[in-house]
Amino acid sequence: MKQAIFRNWNLVRLLRLIMGIAITVQAVMMKDVLFGIAGILFTIMPLFNIGCAAGNCAVPPVKEKSFTKETVYEEVV
User: Fold this and answer.
1) What is the reported pTM?
2) In the chain, where does DSSP find H-type helix?
3) C-alpha distances in angstroms, 2 versus 5, 6, 15, 53?
4) I want to staple 58 with a disulfide (CB 3.0 to 4.6 A). Which of 21, 44, 51, 68 is the partner?
5) In this structure, what are the phi and psi dihedrals at residue 10, rounded to the nearest 5 degrees?
6) pLDDT tens string 13-68
């Protein structure tokens, strides 16, 4: 669970979190329950890195860089 929250943060995920918080704050100010539920949903999705519609909204994890291994040649006589 901690890995889902603290790993793989990028700009898109951060923007989704900010948008969800803004929707939730606006819902509290307007005292609108339905808007508040939508805001909480939009806040939870980037927090736990879950997407919508079969996972199409989730950002793929960053792949580690692969280092090239030096090849050692042996002389055959």
Assistant:
1) 0.62
2) 2-6, 11-30, 33-47
3) 5, 6, 20, 23
4) 51
5) -140, 180
6) 899 899 999 999 999 999 999 999 999 999 998 888 777 665 565 566 667 776 77
